[in-house]
Specification:
The protein is α+β, with helices and mostly antiparallel strands. Helix content is about 35%, strand content about 35%. The protein has a six-stranded antiparallel sheet with strand order 1-2-3-4-6-5. Helix 2 packs antiparallel against helix 3. The longest helix has 24 residues. It is globular and about 45 Å long. The N and C termini lie far apart (about 50 Å).
Length: about 140
């Protein structure tokens, strides 16, 4: 089984009904939308994404990059990154911060331990990022 298959099985068993999207398998937890990515060239690769946690503008770009760096230093396995994409509605480029959790799974992963830890780490990192970006100087 691939990492995606193992995680999807876990999600279904725990009433988090994943649905296929153009970006991967999406599921919702605590009002957050998570994406489970699949890499067909690396079936042991596990990547869970928490997209769009914070809008990045020209005015806060530098601060957002520095804050992402701080999150990356503070959290094991979790990555914070500024993701840029073309907005479908008006063709403008938009940027926001995504949080990811990435790991290479061995042949007998404890998915029941991995997924809750990934989700918890990502939610904590997202909360810390937003708090750092919105606190008054």
């Amino acid at each position: 089984m691939t990492a995606k298959d193992l995680v999807v099985k876990f999600l279904k068993e725990n009433n988090m009904q994943p649905e296929k999207t153009e970006f991967g398998m999406r599921f919702f937890l605590e009002d957050w939308s998570f994406l489970l990515w699949e890499d067909p060239d690396d079936p042991a690769f596990f990547r869970l994404m928490l997209p769009g946690i914070f809008d990045v503008t020209d005015e806060n770009f530098a601060e957002a990059i520095l804050c992402c760096n701080q999150i990356n230093m503070d959290y094991k396995v979790v990555k914070a990154l500024v993701y840029s994409f073309d907005a479908e509605k008006n063709g403008d480029e938009e940027m926001n911060v995504w949080i990811s959790f990435e790991q290479i799974l061995d042949k007998t992963p404890e998915v029941g331990d991995l997924v809750p830890r990934a989700v918890n780490s990502m939610l904590n990192a997202a909360h810390d990022f937003v708090q750092k970006m919105t606190e008054e100087d």
